[in-house]
Amino acid sequence: MPVIFSYLxxxxxxxxxxxxxAAAILFVLLRLLPGDPANALVSVGADPEQIEAARRxxxxxxxxxxxxxxxxxxxxxxxxxxxxxxxxxxxxxxGKRLTVTVPLxxxxxxxxxxxxxxxxxxxxxxxxxxxxxxxxxVSQLGIAVPVFWIGILLVTVFAxxxxxxxxxxxxxxxxxxxxxxxxxxxxxxxxxxxxxSASLIRYVxxxxxxxxxxxxxxxxxxxxASFPEALIRHGxxxxxxxxxxxxxxxxxxxxxxxxVVERVFSLPGLGSMxxxxxxxxxxxxVQGVLFISTLLVLFLGFFADLxxxxxxxxxxxxxGGVAR
Amino acid sequence: xxxxxxIIASTSGRKRRSLTFTIxxxxxxxxxxxxxxxxxxxxxxxGAMSGERLEAASLxxxxxxxxxxxxxxxxxxxxxxxxxxxxxxxxxxxxxIGITIGLLAAFASKTLDDVLAAGxxxxxxxxxxxxxMLIVASSDGSSLWTxxxxxxxxxxxxxxxxxxxxxxxxxxxxxxxxxxxxxxxxMGVVAIHxxxxxxPTLLVNLALQFGLAVIAEASLSYLxxxxxxPNASWGRLLQExxxxxxxxxxxxxxxxxxxxxxxxxxxxxxxxxxxxxDPTRRSRK
Lengths: 324, 285
What we know:
With about 325 residues, chain A is mostly helical. Chain A has helices at about 1-30, 50-60, 65-75, 90-125, 130-140, 145-160, 180-210, 215-220, 225-265, 270-280, 285-310, 315. Chain A starts with a helix and ends in a 7-residue tail after the last helix. Residues about 320-324 of chain A have low confidence and may be disordered. By secondary structure, chain B is an all-alpha fold. Chain B has one domain (about 30-285): MetI-like fold (Orthogonal Bundle). Chain B contains ten helices and no strands. Chain B has helices at about 1-35, 70-105, 110-125, 130-140, 145-170, 175-180, 185-220, 235-240, 255-275, 280-285. In chain B, helix 3 crosses helix 5 (about 145-170). The interface between A and B is large, with 43 and 38 residues.
């Protein structure tokens, strides 16, 4: 048991360092954006005094090092400032946006797992049958398709031709009307789930294949377990170890990748906030969205690593070092 | 008995693999031919209004016209050229930077290696698209080259990590020690032992990165961060067609088919390359 704690501390330390490093990267990237952030505050043709005042207001007249420490400390206090454009505080706005992005991502994630787990296992176990190969081929096709095109195709079929679901938008009062909100998310969820399950199927399939060729499965069969029994008792637990770390990464990239799907379906989520922020040079918004989503991603990675340790005793007992 | 089974299985497996290679080569070849052709000829001037707005497909306009009356088929053909430039540019940039950093990390001291590896992990945790979006946004005006550069940079982290792992594996071999003892310089070791040993895997990975780069650029263009027509990529065409999907659905479908056919072609080619480059895989199963 102490081993897992020492691992936990090491992993927590790595998490903290990653957050600081990510914040530093964010700082550098944002300073690379052309133009002074103060320009967003003043109108075109403002006189130098007004510009100077605006620079003082946003703090871009300070030396870089001081800007950096202010930046880090304000992040540590979760003070993300207010938008230059709408003057609304960033953090509550992100919270509001997350009520769209988080349900979207989670539902898509669950649906993708529900599709990919059975199909991936079938593709591995029945690789000699036509349907096994079919699953593999289709999932191969799936990773070649950009997510926004699937979205457009779904809109064409289900919104334009069949008129089953709205082609985009989100009810202005959000989840106050759950049915309308849910309807608005159906096509986006399916879009993400299709793309996500295509790559998941491949991981599940190869993890299952590794298990199928293993000695312990053969031993279990030799000891009299039926094939499904052996697969469920020994196979799934072993195969889930690599799949879980992939799941963590997939969930993270879906969360950040939602920007494209949100644009396809004009959803007012985190991604569209980021995109709008970039277009309007609204630094506090861009910075806030990126910081919060990076935090989410790093935490997801942390929990995925922890879950892996808990499932696989071989990883758990290995002292020290982080598995690469 | 079991031997016969293996032999039959392996020949049928090889046939299927050479089939994937052939299909892949065909699709990619098609796009290369079309892309080169657009340098001297397209059915219509891609910038000119050559027909009515949003015409349906006809023998004259194979994919119809867009909302400005431009021939969509010509625009899609040019899209092939753009996509090939994007993919090639991105893997050249990603490959050069990635392989250099990866080799450096493999040779570096333990501390530097750890720092580099952790840095790469963080960079990889950022999706390519997001990183590319930031780089494109941080440069003035969105041109094709900014997008290529951005995607190349984003991909270099993945290439670097792979190179590092592969190179370290080779470096731990006894023949490296032997080679060093016999007086080969580190540069010599890289040229004689490491690169020849790791290029097959790297090449396959770069081929996959090519496809991902094409998709990433299309996504950037779709978000409005790419070059405008007539030198637009398929992503931009799809974005413009989405607004008119009620009246002209073909415009929202045809560029996507072109894109998917190229990416699938590249992926199949990569699979085929993997089997050709790695004799141990060739005989397995």
